[in-house]
Design goal:
Domain YjeF N-terminal (chains A, B): 24-234
Organism (chains A, B): Chanos chanos
Helix content of chain A: 25-40%
Oligomer: homodimer
GO cellular component, one term (chains A, B): mitochondrion
Strand order of the largest sheet of chain A: 3-2-1-4-5-6-7-8
CATH topology of chain A: Rossmann fold
CATH architecture of chain A: 3-Layer(aba) Sandwich
Number of helices of chain A: 7
Distance between the termini of chain A: 17 Å
Strand content of chain A: 5-15%
Radius of gyration of chain A: 18 Å
GO molecular function (chains A, B): NAD(P)HX epimerase activity
Shape of chain A: globular
Structural class of chain A: alpha/beta
Largest sheet of chain A: 8 strands, mixed
Protein name (chains A, B): ApoA-I-binding protein 2
Order of helices and strands of chain A: HHEHEHEHEHEEEHE
CATH class of chain A: Alpha Beta
Mean pLDDT of chain A: 93
Low-confidence stretches of chain A: 1-9
């Protein structure tokens, strides 16, 4: 897939493509409408792969706190649900996630993922401490599952603007799912949050070009035809791994 | 979880439990009704884990045929859909699955999984050769995703009884998903098919007690409370693996 078919002798590897906002939308529409993937199915795949990326970036044995605590902040839409699934799998992997989910989605699709976490005894915070030190002391890292590429980043509203302000001040690492919340899909933000880890889902977005932290590509299921159509030039995933570090 | 809490000095490991038919039903009902798992989500988890089990039991490099062909036979209900998801992931893992799915489910849940395979250019057979040698020659193995524990095994109807008769004659290995098709959930069959590999999903069923082939437990997501309630005594899965060989 990655080889130029016209040059059998020099294996020229085409570079990985970084998607525009409209391409992200088109790919998702095609997956749902033409390939008949279900949202529940995709959210499960992405959340599971995100949890595995977290275990690679922050292995249990590497955590500095006594307890393997992780704060997962979930937004109101799909990115938030991916965060919920990620938290659930982290619990299975013996981390201790706590969820902050300030505005719950009215959709039963998202509510189901919430109940799964509640019934697994994952604690939900009723508010985020504004005292940054409390967050630094309590958790090893924060997972940012607040806003995904589906959200228009220009007008981030409350409570998310305050949350992002808090995240800009914390000292513990942030791992963002799909895109760093508050960033434009197509452009890195200079005054936004500054995640140490970015977990791009299915394909990286333009804002991740030049990302200097640890960058994972997670979620390995995209039909070959779509990879070709969008000229994604995805790297070869090792073995049966659902992710790769870029 | 596996340790008896009353004997802190001698770590007595309780044996893995093998489930009765009613326990299988109760666990599934509880997952769907109380924990609000979705069928689409569970089928994806189980199918993905099954595909990984196949790659462990039959690594690409171990296959004797020139092409990494696999025949996946899918039944009309949930077990069949798990087979469809397994086939899709095997394609992603660079196997060459072919699907035989003689009676397609009328439920859109199952149809969606079918479309995903069709759109990934996985070929569907229109009939199963009765000439056993043709199957032996064309495929490295057969994945039996025909009948699961949800089906009453006593009265296996056509076309499945003929298919099982064919499977009893083939020389290539069979890998069964959840239970070997045609077996009773609670008892091993002496005159049924004889799979080399059994991939028990979530917890093994009674019929798998004493199974002499390669036995995997796949699908790692069961909430701890349910593991405790049903005294499953699941083994510890290594790292982030979604399966373990028993």
């Amino acid at each position: 897939m990655n080889h130029s078919s016209n040059e059998p002798e020099t294996e020229s590897i085409e570079p990985l493509r970084y998607l525009s906002k409209s391409e992200v939308g088109n790919i998702e529409t095609e997956l749902l409408r033409d390939y008949r993937f279900g949202r529940q199915q995709l959210i499960e795949i992405w959340g599971h792969a995100s949890a595995i990326a977290i275990t690679k970036a922050f292995p249990l044995t590497s955590l500095s706190k006594k307890q393997p605590t992780v704060l997962v902040i979930c937004g109101p839409e799909q990115n938030g649900s991916i965060g919920l699934v990620c938290a659930r799998h982290l619990r299975i992997f013996e981390y201790e996630p706590t969820i902050f989910y300030p505005k719950r989605s009215p959709l039963s699709l998202h509510q189901d993922f919430t109940v799964q976490c509640e019934k697994m005894d994952i604690p939900f915070l009723s508010y985020l401490p504004t005292e940054v030190q409390l967050i630094n002391d309590a958790y090893n890292l924060v997972i940012d599952a607040i806003l995904g590429p589906e959200t228009e980043q220009r007008d981030v509203k409350e409570p998310y603007s305050s949350i992002l302000l808090t995240l800009k001040q914390i000292k513990i690492p942030i791992a963002s799912l799909d895109i760093p919340s508050g960033w434009d899909v197509e452009e890195a933000s200079k005054d936004g949050i500054n995640p140490e880890v970015l977990i791009s889902l299915t394909a990286p977005k333009k804002c991740a070009t030049g990302f200097s932290g640890k960058h994972f590509l997670a979620g390995r299921f995209l039909p070959y035809d779509m990879q070709k159509k969008y000229e994604l030039n995805l790297p070869e995933f090792p073995g049966t791994e659902c992710l790769i570090e870029l």
